[in-house]
UniProtKB/TrEMBL annotation:
Keyword field: Calcium, Hydrolase, Membrane, Metal-binding, Transmembrane, Transmembrane helix, Zymogen
Record carries keyword Hydrolase: yes
TM segment ranges: 7-30
Similarity comment: Belongs to the peptidase S45 family.
UniProt keyword Repeat present: no
Top-level taxonomy: Bacteria, Pseudomonadati, Pseudomonadota, Alphaproteobacteria, Rhodobacterales
This protein's name: Penicillin acylase family protein
Residues the record lists as binding Ca(2+): E195, D333, D336
Organism: Paracoccus zhejiangensis
Cofactor, how bound (note): Binds 1 Ca(2+) ion per dimer.
Single GO biological process annotation from the record: antibiotic biosynthetic process
A GO MF label: metal ion binding
Length: 811
């Protein structure tokens, strides 16, 4: 027995030692990839010395003798802090994520190949102007020199993720930056999902279905089935392999998801200091690290500072010495789906405008880590690329014997958008910026600008020309063989839409943009806040940018609760009736502020989700499972009985005829029951922040046990999907109130005192989980705080916490 005890003791001690040694080795190799910001490097490709001065928050201020050297150093800085993220973004655009992630990434790779993101990017390189080509070349050289430096110094492969996802780091090419921009453009548009949803609603209930997603003023849509007489539409089938929210963001961005933003500006005569002010907050999926990266470039014509995306050598939102700008996805319909009929007996041919014709096709192979390579056949019609039925629920709207093809403005081989964006950041004033923006194709952007003389906006990008006889107006898939369905080329979006998008500079000196159209609730709230004050300041702009009052809540609660307020005798404590009364009493006094410390936002949000589900479930059946977003305009139409919409309140499967007040009360009771199960019976102790948690998910490591708590950032947040400080909800799953979208970047630029301008991102500058700069800005972001964005070189050097010096190689 004593001998056994000794051997067990030795084995235990040995295992502990092995674990300690393994932990030390992992820590050593992981920390080897942390860059030294106080270092000197000799790098080929430079024409002179360059300094990368790091501020306290790790914002690089880059000083060089030429613009090419500055772009070179930006490539170095991006690669130092976000190399793995850059390679993942590139792979997502190339359709090569499965090579490192395995079979789970196959569907995303397949879609990227069919969209041709990298192919169109590579072809568009020739369309860039000479300055942009030189910037792309210099930036690529900087990234590659840092990769070479990592290899020479055995610096942990540049990021700890490369140890878990081993693969050779290919050299960065100018086309790679264009491909990342294409990926951003593909993610910006939600046109495909909107078309499919409209068609599915029409199939489910052709008489009232499309009312769900329609906005006031939208033209009626045709019955979708009538577009394909005699064709057989298959019943909707659940997609068991559909990726979750986190899985879909394996490449940080998800084509078709849709991005948003707010931007607003005030002219000098509307500001306290008599100088223009501009604020911008681009919004998208919350990831760790953030998609955004702060940087300052000292170019020959002056300094530029603001938000960049790793992989793209341009400040997309920011200011220079004379101009401030902010970008908002324009929200235009830049894509159309076409239903193409296959020739009976020959699936290699389809019905075109002039009869049966061959597909254009090509074979490619998707390599899969730990799996067999998968060959795919890419096909095109005259209308665009053929997409498989598994994407965007296309199978539910594609008749048997047909396939769906996509036309998209981004499927262009002469896309000079990068030149337009680099030209924008170099422009000294609004007039020059407008000229540069004429080069933009996709994504279509509403660009808000401010200079010393005033403010303005420009709609940049291209939009399709559609025939006035188009069968669906581009709002649902259309028969691909009908001539009226086909696009008639592209034109500047401003030429096609005219004044259809709101927010042009007016006599009052205020311009606004949210990218949601003239009737959007966020634009209405922004308009009110901006116009309520005669004189604006930097601090008032910050307050508007951080506003968490939900216009949706303010408009819906008086309608939905109209017949429920203060009704019935006081109920006994602890009863469901008393809970309902307490909840209604709280909501009756609430101003719609979605504050994380209040119970009212939780009650309201749970109530509205339960109400919408109850309204649509019996009418739409399984389709209701896929409707995860709240549609305030639909609920408002129902409770105002617009065009007989109150019919949605009656539950078709029940014998009684339910009215809207009954459905509202039943939905509130269901919401209270759900929240009681989560947080107890006392409604006054519930807190919005307990359910509205922003989990900034690491796309590569966030799902791994033991690592998730290190790499994922979780914080309670205020707001919802309709507040100016956006906190978009997941809408499904165990916690439908999880905050999954928000402003990854916020900036406020004051041209009266430019160095008092401020900005922030949602995580930290570094993508390295062991860096102190991985999450050091996250808490500031959550609290609505900012950091300074000065262009004063002396101030940058005085506050430097590290200076990296790059020099050309000595002979």
């Amino acid at each position: 027995m004593l001998t056994l005890f000794r051997w067990l003791l030795r084995l235990t001690v040995g295992l502990i030692l092995v674990m300690v040694i393994a932990t030390v080795l992992v820590w050593y190799f992981a920390t080897r990839s942390l860059p030294d910001y106080n270092a000197n490097y000799q790098m080929a490709g430079l024409s002179g010395p360059v300094e990368i001065v790091r501020s306290t928050e790790n914002v690089p201020h880059i000083f060089g003798a030429s613009d090419a050297d500055v772009f070179f150093a930006l490539g170095v800085a991006h690669a130092q802090d976000r190399l793995f993220q850059m390679t993942v973004l590139r792979r997502a655009a190339q359709g090569r994520l499965a090579e490192i992630y395995g079979a789970s990434a196959f569907r995303g790779d397949d879609l990227a190949r069919r969209l041709g993101l990298y192919r169109h990017a590579r072809e568009s390189l020739a369309a860039q102007d000479d300055y942009t080509k030189a910037a792309l070349e210099a930036y690529s050289a900087g990234v590659n020199e840092w990769i070479a430096q990592i290899n020479r110094d055995a610096a942990g492969r540049g990021a700890p993720e490369f140890f878990l996802f081993p693969d050779e780091i290919a050299a960065w090419k100018p086309a790679d930056s264009l491909a990342v921009l294409k990926l951003v453009a593909a993610t910006s548009s939600s046109a495909i999902r909107t078309e499919v949803l409209n068609a599915r609603l029409s199939i489910a209930r052709s008489d009232i279905g499309p009312q769900l997603a329609a906005l006031p003023g939208d033209a009626p849509l045709p019955d979708y089935a009538s577009l394909f007489p005699g064709a057989r539409l298959m019943p909707p089938a659940p997609d068991a392999d559909a990726p979750s929210w986190d899985e879909a963001l394996a490449g940080y961005l998800d084509p078709g998801l849709g991005l948003s933003a707010t931007a607003f500006a005030a002219a000098p005569d509307r500001t306290a200091a008599q100088g223009s002010i501009l604020a911008n907050s681009p919004e998208g999926p919350l990831t760790a690290p953030s998609l955004w990266y702060l940087a300052r470039l000292e170019l020959q014509q002056g300094g530029v500072i603001g938000g960049t995306i790793p992989g793209i050598p341009a400040v997309l939102s920011g200011r220079n010495t004379g101009l401030a700008w902010g970008v908002t996805p324009a929200g235009i319909d830049d894509a159309d789906l076409f239903i193409e009929e296959l020739q009976p007996g020959d699936i290699t041919r389809h019905r075109g405008v002039d009869g049966w014709t061959d597909f254009t096709s090509r074979r490619e192979v998707i390599r899969i880590r730990d799996g067999e390579d998968q060959p795919i056949t890419l096909r095109w019609t005259a209308n665009g690329a053929v997409l498989p039925g598994v994407d965007f629920d296309l199978a539910d709207v594609t008749p048997r014997g047909h396939v769906a093809a996509l036309a998209w403005t981004g499927a262009s081989d002469d896309d000079a958008t990068m030149s337009g964006l680099i030209g924008l950041m170099r422009a000294p004033d609004r007039s020059t910026a407008a000229t540069a923006l004429a080069q933009v194709t996709t994504p279509a952007l509403q660009v808000t600008m401010a200079d010393r003389d005033g403010v303005g906006q420009q709609l940049a990008g291209r939009a399709p020309r559609r025939d006035t006889a188009h069968p669906t107006g581009g709002r649902m898939p259309a028969p691909g063989w009908e001539p009226a369905s086909s696009w008639q080329g592209l034109a500047p979006a401003a030429e096609i839409l005219g004044s259809a998008l709101p927010g042009q500079a007016g006599a009052d000196g205020i311009v606004l943009a949210t990218g949601e159209g003239a009737v959007g609730p966020r634009l209405a709230r922004l308009t009110r806040l901006a116009e309520d004050r005669e004189v604006q300041s930097r601090d008032s702009f910050i307050a508007i940018q951080l506003d968490v009052v939900s216009p949706a809540a303010r408009s819906l609660l008086p309608l939905v609760g109209a017949d429920l307020w203060f009704t019935g005798e006081p109920a006994a404590t602890g009863t469901p009736e008393r809970q309902r009364q307490d909840a209604l009493n709280l909501l009756a006094e609430w101003d719609g502020e979605m504050n994380e410390h209040l119970p009212e936002p939780a009650i309201y949000s749970a109530w509205m989700l339960a109400l919408q589900d109850r309204l649509i479930r019996d009418e739409l059946g399984p389709l209701s499972e896929d409707i995860t977003a709240l549609y305030p305009s639909f609920i408002e139409a129902v409770f105002r009985n617009r065009n007989g919409a109150a019919a949605w309140c009656d539950v078709a499967q029940s014998a009684p005829v339910e009215d809207c007040a009954t459905i509202a009360r039943q939905s509130l009771d269901a919401a209270i029951l759900d929240l009681t199960d989560r947080y107890g019976p006392d409604v006054t102790t519930w807190r919005w922040g307990d359910v509205h948690v922003a989990t900034q998910f690491h796309p590569s490591l966030g799902h791994l046990p033991g690592l998730s708590w290190v790499v994922n950032l979780s914080q309670s947040t205020s707001g919802d999907g309709f507040t100016l400080a956006q906190g978009g909800l997941l809408g499904s799953g165990a916690n439908p109130f999880r905050n999954v979208t928000g402003a990854g970047y916020r900036g406020v630029y004051d041209l009266a005192d430019p160095d008092s301008s401020v900005f922030i991102i949602s995580t930290g500058q570094s993508g390295h989980p062991l860096s102190r700069h991985y999450d050091d800005l996250a808490e500031l972001w959550r609290r609505g705080e900012y950091i300074g964005m000065s262009l004063d070189p002396e101030l940058a050097r005085a506050a430097a916490t590290g200076i990296t010096r790059l020099t050309p190689p000595t002979e």
